[in-house]
Structure formats: structure tokens, C-alpha cells
Amino acid sequence: MGLSANVAAIELLDDEVRLAVVQAGKVVELHRCSVRPPASALTAIEDAEAPAEEERAAAQAEVMLEARVEAVRAVVKQMRTRPATHILCVPGQRSVVRLLTIPFRGRRRVAAAVQFELEPYLAFPIEELVVDFLTVKERKGETEVLAVGVRRDYLSQQLAVLEEAGVDPEGIGLTGIGLTALWLKGRRRPKGLNALVHLGEGGAILAILNGKNLVYLRHLALSPGNVRENPTVLVREVRNSVRAFLAGWDEEGELGGLSVTGLALFEEERALLEEELRIPVQQDDLFEGMKGIPRALRFVERHEPEHAQSGVPTSSDRSTGAPWAATIGTALAAGGAPFWLNFRKGELAWPQVTRTVVGHLVFSSCLALLVLLGIAWYFHEEHNENKVQIGLLRARIADILDEVDQMREQSINVSPAMFRDPPLLDILAELGDTMPDSKVRITALKVNEPDERTDDWVTVAGEVKNEAVFADVVDKLKRSPMFRMDDEPDYRMEGGKSTFRIRLKRPAPGVGSIEEEPEDGQEGSG
Are 281 and 274 in contact (CB under 8 A)? Predict the structure, then answer.
């Protein structure tokens, strides 16, 4: 589920800064600004009296840092909308990627073990990396994950530039993840294994997806120029990577095809790839599923003419939109793609997260306290109301007892049996359930008062459609807890009509039934 808010992704390159604002699969804005250190500052460093090489390099780095900060400020200032969040986009060539098998399941336990399992494959301490992972698949007792790590020092330097420019990103995304999410946006229902190779200005990435799940990612040290000069290099790298993946893929199914984006392959190059890999190879447009690209590019052409045609000669995507592909994809992935990696964690965790969490906790605690106070007040009021009702009931009971005593003194004999019978409405409701109008027409109904001389209570006469309906009515009456049927009902066929007469009696007194009180001196012995 994608976010409806604006997400701004910022990519810091050596010579320029790019920014893309994306909202729910639509490009809202695109901006870029060149990193241009003051020529006077660089000249002053070169003209300094024989500075040490390290001092000169440090001075140049400081000048470039200031220039990048100014470029970030300029590109942020160009935005016409206010994004809900900022994301830092880092190049995939700076990452370490590895498929790992963790010998247990459960995301929390797997997350704790990923760094331990990744460390043997590194030539440096694992503490130097910020690691995140995607779950590839879960088998019985183990989990296969795609672990990705980026150098902590590099991320700190990138964050320092943004923070100096007044931008505090909530997350850090990878270009490879963004490009794959951007390609997936244009595919409605991908099935099985599919491969994607993107040939961009900073290098190439190879991604393999199983449906919508990313299961393999590798960054290739290839540029569009390398591929143009020697296409067999691309064939060799892709073939070796695909074979390495399939060797460890223990599920059924073959690679369905390979999509190429970024560089527009010649037909001979595409045919060579298809022949060597023995799978369909097609050229795809990364921006097929995105809206708003032409409008955003027209704005760039009007306000940033020096950048309007950058990158067109080698791009098969929508010409001038190609340089923003990684930035747009990263914003799209952060806004709700099926997969997302965030490297702003640990020591680099977004400081606002802590403050936000604390604020939410305080607010939630106050809200919970108010709820508890409201519940306590409600029960207190209910308790007081119940006490009032108890007093009223006690007074009413006392009044009834007084009336009974007065009746006894006046020799008025009120039999308790009259209070044993249910109300007339309940009797009618019970008869209505057992004798619906659609099947039975009642012509006579008589309810007798309690009488010691006879046990008859309710007499019902009427007409039915047939004998089967009558048998069903009798069966329901016999099972009714309100009546007792001792006598067989009277059923006749007269003049083409089926008539009946049923006599119902009161049920036998049970436990808890009201009995007449014995008069004084008549208590039974024993």
C-alpha cells in the first residue's frame, strides 16, 4: 500500500545533486543543481606556498563539501511542494550484497543473526557496516535472506552534507532497490522468476524477482560505454550471475526472461544476450508505470535549461527522465513498494524518531489514564444508581407484603397459581411460532383461568392445508416448554377442509415453580 504523502528523495553525486518528489506513483517535481566550487577558492589552494599534499587535499575536500551543501540548499529551495519526508539515495556500488541462510525462523531472531552470518564474507569488521535485509523465503526451520550492507563512514558523510544544508532525512535507500521498484511499478502481475539489468551512468545492477519479491541483487562494474565497446562483457557478467543464483535456488521454475533498461541495446546486442542466456530478452521503459514525468521535465527545461538534455544519447527511457531514474525509484520504494531497505539505523538512526516515539508514548499514556478515569467514574455512577434502585425495590417489596397481609386479614384468597401462567402475549407468540399463518388458519382460541376442577388451559381450533402440516404443528407443540399435551388432538376432514381442535395443558410444576402457601395449621407433617 503506497503512501499518499509527498516523498522527496535526494541523490548526491560528485558533480551534481538531484531531487525527485513522488506521490503515490506520480512524479510531482524534478530538480537538479550542479556542484560548482568557487574557482577562486581552488586557485587559492593551488597558489598557496608549497602546502603539504595532505593539507592541500583536506582544503580541497572542505571546499567541495561547502559546494555540495550549497547545491543541496539550492535544489531544496527550488521545490514548490512541501514533502512529508526526505530520503537519502545512495549508490548501489557502495553496498555489499550477500544471500544468507539463517538456521531458524522469526524476523526478530533472524535480524539478530544476519550480521553474525554476514561477517565471515567480509574483509573488514562488520561494525563498519550498516546492515538491512529482505526475506527471500522461509523453509522448515530456516530462513533465506538477502543481506545488504553499506559503510557507516560513507553514510555519515552523506548525512553530514544534508544536515548542514538543513535537511534531515528519515531514511536512507539504495539505488538498486529504487530502480527495481520503479521497473516493477510498470508490471501488473509478474509471475515466476524474472531478471532485470539496468545500465546506468554509475554502473549496472542485476536484480531477480520471484513474482513481486526481490530474491537476488548484484551490482556490476559496467558502464554504458563498456557495453558499447564490448557487449560480450555484459553477456559474461549476466550469465555468471544468473548461473550463480540458479545454483542455489532450490525451487521449481526457470528464468522467464530478462528486461534491459537504461542503455538502448542494438538489435545485435540484444540477440547476443538472448542467444547466450537462452531466455527472452526485451528492452523496457523504466517509467512505464509512472505518471507526471512529461510535466516535471517541461518544468526542468524551462527553469534549468543547462540540464535539460543531459544523458539523452544513451538512454532508452523517456530521454531526459533517465538521470532521475534512481532518485525517482528510491522515493517510490520508500513510499510503499513491496520491498524496501533502510540504512538509517543504529548510531545513524533518525533522531526525530526518538522524540516522536517519546511524544507518542506520553500522549498514549495520558489518553489511557483519561480512559481509565472515565471507566472508574462510570462504574462509580452505576454503583450509586444501583443503590438507589435497591432502595426503591425494597420499599416496593415492603408495600406488596403489606397488601398481602391486608388481604389475608380481609379473607381475600388470591391463589398464587394465577401468577404462574405466562402473559397472554407470550402464549400468542409461542402459538404463532408453531402455527404460522402461511400453514395454519386459527378459527378459535380459548385461554382458561386456573381451575382445580379441570386441567385444560388453552384450546385452539382451526384449519390446516394437509395432514403433514398438522403433524408438524403437533410435533412442535409437544416439544414446546410452555405447553403439555396429554390428549390426542381432534383432526377431521369435512367438506374438503382439514380442521382440528387441540387442548393444551399447563406444564407440570418444576423446581422453582410457585406453589400455594399452606394455610395456618395445614402444614404437612413429616
Answer: yes
